[in-house]
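Complex record, two chains
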Amino acid sequence: MPNKLGEFTVTPWEVKGEVDYDKLIREFGTTPITDELIERIAKFTGDVHPFLRRKIFFSHRDLNWILDRYEAGEKFFLYTGRGPSGHTHMGHLVPWIFTQYLQEKFGAELYFQMTDDEKFLHNSELSLDTTVGFTYENALDVIACGFDPEKTFIFSDIEYAKTIYDIAVKIAKHITFSTAKAVFGFENSTNIGMIFFPAIQAVPCFLPSVLKGKNVPCLIPAAIDQDPYWRGVAREVAPKLGFYKPAQIHSKFIPGLGQGGKMSASEPETAIFTVDPPELVHSKIMRSFTGGRSTIQEQREKGGIPEICPVYRYYEILLKDDKDVREVYCRCREGELLCGEDKLRLSEVVQTFLKEHQRKREEAKKTLEKFMVRD
Amino acid sequence: MPNKLGEFTVTPWEVKGEVDYDKLIREFGTTPITDELIERIAKFTGDVHPFLRRKIFFSHRDLNWILDRYEAGEKFFLYTGRGPSGHTHMGHLVPWIFTQYLQEKFGAELYFQMTDDEKFLHNSELSLDTTVGFTYENALDVIACGFDPEKTFIFSDIEYAKTIYDIAVKIAKHITFSTAKAVFGFENSTNIGMIFFPAIQAVPCFLPSVLKGKNVPCLIPAAIDQDPYWRGVAREVAPKLGFYKPAQIHSKFIPGLGQGGKMSASEPETAIFTVDPPELVHSKIMRSFTGGRSTIQEQREKGGIPEICPVYRYYEILLKDDKDVREVYCRCREGELLCGEDKLRLSEVVQTFLKEHQRKREEAKKTLEKFMVRD
């Protein structure tokens, strides 16, 4: 059954409430990323990415195994993806930024799946033309993250269907309705496209092995809500098809600017989209929920609560220097930093980031075709 | 639920027992083909095909509507198909022969679907390479029936998946698991590929409309066991997608050479395959079940029972002249014709038919590529 974990819910389609990540690790049966593992990764990368230091990537499956294989001279590939139901927001960028880092450090190929079929099947409001259209819009944001055009293959499920469907039926043959129902909580009212879809989402785990005619280890960087797809389907089926089980590295959810939950396009006033103009970004951030107190006086006396504050979380993502993040944390805690000042600064940081991202996104229009693979 | 009709069973995967076709028409809710309708068809074709005269095609849905549209200047296309799990046998040829006649008389395009995906998903013994391989073997038999290469499009679900999957997800979005379960009797142990497959099988009903960008009426000639696909899926979904409901014309099952049931590749000793050499055909027919009596004396006295005799049924299919069929019937009934003589003659008729079919099948290897469409 989908994980409804008391006060919070995490499924591939929904994240609600204040997520207890330790509980999630226990429930999902994943492994926390320890300092020791971070050190081991650093041996290969030469540094530690801020997202690892700051535990934004916090959990994994078989990451040591992937490094063992890499050490033995066997390169892995990366697989991640996006459900193109609308414009990209900053929450989406976090795993992509980290994936780009992994590609660079490990010289890994990336297979990037755009699940335009799923978004169409899942959402009664969306036409297939719309979701396929967003495949191309979102691909610009992926490319803007700096991926290597020689090693990056972005594909739409719909437009790459000839290659995908062939592998998907081989996966689907091993997944009964019971299994799919147990993993995803399908109901009698679920449409048959959604029921088949887990087979499609598992395809990229094995795609390079099929294309290259030899077993290639797979590492999936993605938010932890996608874990059921790999745990319940890809990892179950892999040995039956003679493939390696895909390894995973999981990120936390990136909060929206409202109270609780992850950044979601369905609440556009609390999400910063990559195509938002600067004024809109500014006004969204200035209206953000924070960990601040109700009055200035109370804030000065008790200090704010950065742990629940999306503004603080964004510094964690965007500031390169740990010292700067720490400073925000301490000044907030001590009641020195007020929310107004804090938000003004974040607005500037985000605008600077987005200005650069938007420039690269515009550039990406020229190279888009180099990245897209079709049948 | 699948139709288990007392003493006989008819589902898309199984036909068992002595089929009562009048009961089947009532249960499925189709319409019998009347003499009046045959006359109406003859106005367009200029003749009456033996399969109509002999009620081998006996039931329909919306055939008058298709003729109305044709009369109003709107051409229809034909859609039929084959599950390529093995070699073609003579039972398969019957709807194809009739479909070729309809193509010729109505100048209709034919979309011919090879469901290599379904046969792989349904049968644990078959690899996908095997079923795709039989797509090409079976296509030779289709072409040997004399279809027009300019108007005939044969495709493998696997190899034409790019075009098919796009349309299939649009269909699938409107089919809940409940509906699919009610129509096909899916169970918890059914794999998710089979659950999705009804959407794939419905695609060709709308494919020409999608390709041409306008609504084109569809007529499906097929054995009646395939009716659930069109009744439960294609005809339900058509209005939601803005397409015409497909019309149908249904054939009876072609019996095997054993007692009861339809000709089936799973009982190869009772099925005549198009690739069988003459000696094998001869020995299979000589061992056939018949409607004869246990002794020659009893046969002379009481006569045989052509109604239950596969040998007689084959004359109905293969002899052009009604007078010749009638003569076999009467001579058998009157005890004049003995089974040995009867089978010897059928063996000659079938061998003559197959010799010509095999010649055309060999020829078809040269034109195969003209008929196959891929993405």
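Note: The interface with chain A takes residues 117, 120-121, 128, 157-162, 164-166, 168-170, 172-178, 180-181, 186-193, 195-196, 198-199, 375 of chain B (CB under 8 Å).
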